[in-house]
Amino acid sequence: MAFKDTDRTVFVARRGDGSIYGVWTVRQFAGQEEVLADDPQVVAFMNRPAPQPGISGNALADLLIAKGIVTEQDVTTAATMSAGLPLPG
User: Helix or strand or coil: residue 21?
Assistant: First the structure.
């Protein structure tokens, strides 16, 4: 597809499943697709959420307790079970 307004186009590279893995303003290699810069797939790719930093198990447990998603007892029970220890009581 050829566009006349080259300031509004970008070149995308796609995986085999059609998902975008790269967007450039200048063609980088053969086989790239030229699309409008405001194409919904390009906008979604460029504005995807940032990766979340890693979090330790203890920090995750503290966060879930603080948000009221689980209780401290839930965490203790899960830790006991994963360690293969008998549950109290």
Answer: strand
The DSSP code for 6 is: G
What sign does the CA torsion over 15, 20, 24, 25 have? Answer: positive
pLDDT tens track of the chain, all 89 residues? 555 555 689 999 999 999 999 999 999 999 999 999 999 999 999 998 877 777 777 888 888 899 999 888 888 887 777 777 676 66
First to last CA, the chain: 71
Question: Can you give the pTM of this predicted structure?
Answer: 0.51
Query: Cβ contacts of residue 61 below 8 Å, gap of 6+?
Result: 70, 75
